[in-house]
Amino acid sequence: MPASSYKLTSLGLPVFTPSLLFGIAEGGLLPIIPASAQALGASLPTAGIILGLVMIGTLFADIPAARLINVLGERKAMMSAAAVASLGILLASLATALWVLGLGVFILGASVAVFGLARHSYLTEVVPYSHRARALSILGGVFRAGHFIGPLIGAALIILIDLQAVYWNAVVFCALAALILIFIKPDRMPDTPATVPGGTWKVAKRESKKLATLGVTSAIIGGLRTARLVGLPLWALSIGLPPATIALYMGIAGALDLALSYSSGQIMDRFGRRWSALPTLLGLSLTFSLLTLATNETTFLAVALLMSLANGVGSGIILVIGADLAPKGERNEFLASYRLLVDSGVAAAPLVISGVTALLGISIAMFTVSGLGIVGAFMAYRYVPRRANPSEQIMPTSENM
């Protein structure tokens, strides 16, 4: 199909709708896992560890996910991941011991890795370069929408029914995602050509320069985004804002972030990836510094909105960079190692903030994150191509290394 006639709407039912449903399930569940752990007798640190098993499960499955997708194809891999996630959530909902809850959460995290890689790989292969950034920015927006809608549904269920209802809600949404993929006709989402099986580490070694440059840049972006979700509420608590106000302001900021998703893709497709990556990194770096000046509700909301503006301009940038980097015929293997690197940055961010806060205080922690953003911006300026041009896709040559 000519690139000029390609329609992004063709991805609505097979990719974006299941992703939204899966995101609603995950987004609604994550905030209540610590409370469930505490109800089973966990201390606050242990409850944090139980929640962290989601990310541990994702990191564990990032590399094996490539092999699974090669065997099943993207549609069946997404379908299977949603079904297994539903079972993992069901196990967690029935848990009477912490280890059972932890196992269910770990299974959910592993399913997130498979589901995420399958849709990323599929869009990388089937969407023309001219539309790639918009497609992946929409996917990023769908992820944001799920994590925005999910907690709202979860809060309503807790008020109207009980905490357990949130688990059943997540089971239903994951099952719905799987059902949609089951009933999608194969010609609506045909399997893409299989990539080289079992070559993940070989591909990662050969493409190590790309991973060490733009892969690390993407990991920094992912870390900054997670630091935003951790740092904003921590700073709000440190200046004495009530939890209800924090939740409201985070929700308002999240809505602005979501609204900018498609605009980010238009910027990248028209002007180039650098025009999304640099504003995001510099903007997040600046706003983490400004956060230390927020001393009341008004200034906190202003900084939170600025931070969302910076983050929203880069919606989908991590997915787009990964897609641009992926070698033809080895995208699953490369994207598996790329996503492992990015997920490691995401997992490290809360640890960095917690450690620096404990040792030197929360203000120094915010400046530390700001400094990481400057490093990421320098790397993006150095390695991301200037213009949006298919001939300037990030290739494994010395010119971009």
General description of the model:
The chain is built from 16 helices and no strands. It has 401 residues and is mostly helical. It folds into 2 domains: 12-184, MFS general substrate transporter like domains (Growth Hormone, Chain: A); 198-401, Growth Hormone, Chain: A (Up-down Bundle), CATH 1.20.1250.20. Helix 9 packs antiparallel against helix 13 (297-313). The radius of gyration is 20 Å and the shape is globular. Pfam families: MFS_1 (PF07690). Keywords: Cell membrane, Membrane, Transmembrane, Transmembrane helix, Transport. It is found in: Cell membrane. Residues 11-388 form the Major facilitator superfamily (MFS) profile domain.
Task: Please tag this protein with its features.
single chain, 401 residues, mainly alpha, Growth Hormone, Chain: A, 2 domains, 0% strand, disordered C terminus
- End-to-end distance, in Å? 33 Å
CATH superfamily of the largest domain: MFS general substrate transporter like domains
The profile of the biggest β sheet is: none
Q: Rg to the nearest angstrom?
A: 20 Å
Membrane topology: Multi-pass membrane protein
GO molecular function, one term: transmembrane transporter activity
Domain Major facilitator superfamily (MFS) profile: 11-388
GO cellular component, one term: plasma membrane
Topology:
Blueprint: H1 12-29, H2 33-39, H3 44-72, H4 74-93, H5 98-126, H6 129-160, H7 164-183, H8 200-206, H9 208-238, H10 243-259, H11 261-271, H12 274-291, H13 297-313, H14 317-325, H15 331-360, H16 362-383
